[in-house]
UniProtKB/TrEMBL annotation:
Keywords: Hydrolase, Metal-binding, Zinc. Its EC number is 3.1.2.6. Residues 18-103 form the Metallo-beta-lactamase domain. This is hydroxyacylglutathione hydrolase. Residues 104-160 form the Hydroxyacylglutathione hydrolase C-terminal domain. It comes from Brevundimonas vancanneytii.
Amino acid sequence: MQAETGCEIAGPEEVRRAAPLDHVLVDGEAVRLGETTFDVVLSPGHTLGHVVYHAAEDGLAFVGDVIFALGCGRLFEGTPQQMWDSLNRIAAWPEATTLYCAHEYTASNARFALSLPDADEALKAHAEAIFAARERGEASVPTTVGIERRFNPFLRARDAADFAARRALKDGFKG
């Protein structure tokens, strides 16, 4: 693509393992896509070099595999503490912030969330709405920070140890 377009290849340092970079992105750096300015948010946990792009002014973020609607990514390279810290950075944003995640796993994530002891009536109603939307062929993403603070079982964890226990349960969940 670079040979055909002359584009610059930018990414976190970790990407050098797989591809050459013209520019290494650092936490807090601003990048532009068209008229939108995004802050680079290094978000290790899923992978060591995972990056989130947050456009605070526009109230949106592309969060990749750090957080999903009612879920989060597996820990392929990072530690539970790294993922917990990354999730909490996102959770600290305004509740109206729209989160665009990389996968539509919401129904499966809802089944897992419902299996946990802290599932409440509000979560059950939210899950039922998700199941109905998916049956109609409707997407359940994007989501918002506010919705995830309320219902995401990984953001409902008390601390990194509780997060790690929940992630281990999810990794073996067959529901």
